[in-house]
Amino acid sequence: MKTIRKCPACGNHTGEILYENKMKMPAEVSLPESYHIVSCNACGNCYADTSALPADYDAYYCGHNYYGAGWTCNASSVHDYAVISRMLDDAVSKDGFIMDIGCGNGGLLKYLKEQGFTNLMGIDPSADSVNSLQEYGIRAAIGSVYHQTDADIPKARAVILTMVLEHLLEPDKALENIKKQYLDKEGFVLASWPYFDDLIADDSPVINNFNHEHINYFSLVSAQRLFSRCGYSCRDRHISLGFCRNDFLMFSNIALFQSVSENSCKKEPLPKDERTKDSILKYIARQKEKEEAIAARIHELAKSRKECIVWGSGSYFMHLCSVTELEQCNITCIIDNNRLKQGRSISGFPVKSPEAVKSFRGGGNSDSRYAIWKRNFAAGQEYGKHLLRNYSVINSCIRNRQPRNEMRLSYPWTISISD
Using CA atoms, how far apart are residues 179 and 190, in angstroms rounded to an integer? Predict the structure, then answer.
């Protein structure tokens, strides 16, 4: 079939549909509520065939970017950061100018500063992200991979794109602009992105990997094809394996590319990506039965009209609102750690901080009240202990002190209902 988007790896315009993804977007976000995941007929790269326009994503990342809130450098972050730091050490001196584009809350730049890198700068479309870095004493400016920032800055020896490639609607234009506007001659681009080459060990929900933000699903060979097409040569690569994030085993590709002249750029033939399509299809098939079970549990809860609290207002919540009866449940509020979301309303439900749960009592006994937690529920913290005392917690992610007679589905983000 003819695709809406051209393949971000090779530029081809035909592909095979693998899956339709659905989410209910907030009213103020002008992004499509569904798209097809497709596999390129020419090179095998997989991507979201979204109808969104560049202006839609510019507006989204400027006005609805929640990555600037707080910096938590957990074990999984340190694992990748250490790999990135070592790769930069081999390419850039400690005082070489390093620019992180799409820096979010600046966690990597803060880590690099602690490792002795002294000439750092962050670029992000979000003012919250920029302010967060400036408060930490690192230079930052509003900008993006597509547009030169207004700040007067020199060319960088290295540009970092950590977990950015999967977000870009036009990654070829981004890499060409980086080469033209931000990078010095023969400078480096260090990129990391989720490991889609093989999802066999991934048991997270489909929406965790494929959502309104994650629209490119590059394998290493597909990323090499994209960079080669834009005038870069791969100098080093690393597969980060076997660390945990939010109770899931996560993987990522990390690669170092160097800008080369058109004359010296060898267009080495790359094989067709034969793995990612099969990896995605098997992964989605594994999740189908679990997602159906989740929908059935939510149907029971909606029908009962029992009081609910929902943890998390992100992509999984939006997905459940689209494909289940979650919005028909008797939801008191949504709890979210992100301070930038607190005080807002999403799908008509107020968003509150975790501390707010301490004041919740509800009516009747705990058997008539439910807390729906989709991930990173901290049962050991005070608000977690309060929920366990006053609510029947609906999530098999809770490893300890399970509510009595809870029906577990052995799936970290499932919703299971206690009777």
Answer: 13
Name the residue with higher pLDDT: 148 or 88. 88
Tell me if residue 61 falls in helix, strand or coil: helix
Classify residue 186 as left (phi > 0), alpha (psi -120 to 50) or beta: left
pLDDT per residue as tens digits for the range 315-357 = 889 999 999 999 999 888 888 887 778 888 888 899 998 887 7
For residues 144 and 169, the answer to whether their CB atoms sit within 8 Å is no
DSSP character string of 237-293: EEEEEEEEETTEEEEEEEEEEEE--TTT----------SHHHHHHHHHHHHHHHHHH
SS3 state of residue 336: coil
Take residue 11 and report the two structure tokens written for it.
């530029």
| SS3 category, 235 | strand
User: What pTM does this model have?
Assistant: 0.84
In which band, very low, low, confident or very high, does the pLDDT at 208 lie, cut at 50, 70 and 90?
confident
Spatial distance between the Cα atoms of 190 and 46, rounded to a whole number of angstroms: 22
DSSP 418: B
Residue 203's pLDDT is: 80
Cβ of 195: how many Cβ atoms within 10 Å? 23
183-200 average pLDDT score: 91
Two tokens, residue 362: 């509800």
173: closest CA among 113, 240, 111, 226? 226
Residues contacting residue 60 through CB under 8 Å, at least 6 positions apart: 29, 30, 31, 212
